[in-house]
Design a protein that fits this description.
Layout: E1 2-8, H1 15-25, E2 33-39, H2 43-48, E3 56-59, E4 62-63, H3 87-101
Parallel strand pairs: 1-2
Antiparallel strand pairs: 1-3, 3-4
Helix pairs in contact: 1-3
Amino acid sequence: MIRIEFQHFEGCPNSPQMLDNVKRAIIGLENQIIFNVILVEKDEDAKEYHFRGSPTLLINNEDYEGLLAPEEPKLACRIYPMGLPSPKDIRDKILKHLAIDE
């Protein structure tokens, strides 16, 4: 099983689109993944979840872009330099993880 975790906070402008991209990426993979959406509401939550900014996608506890957990996590928006990952890009990365785990 692959563990997918989507972390975000309310009000982040990129969160709704990224969440939609993730949901589209996992269609048909539901029996091979565990999917959780984590709402990070305060700095204490950010520390608990090693929050990298909103939105963050973790696949088996690894950041989608390989970003390490910050020393001082806090509520902040996250910028994806190449734009938000598409559903296809997310799915491809998940499938690579599935192939590794088999």
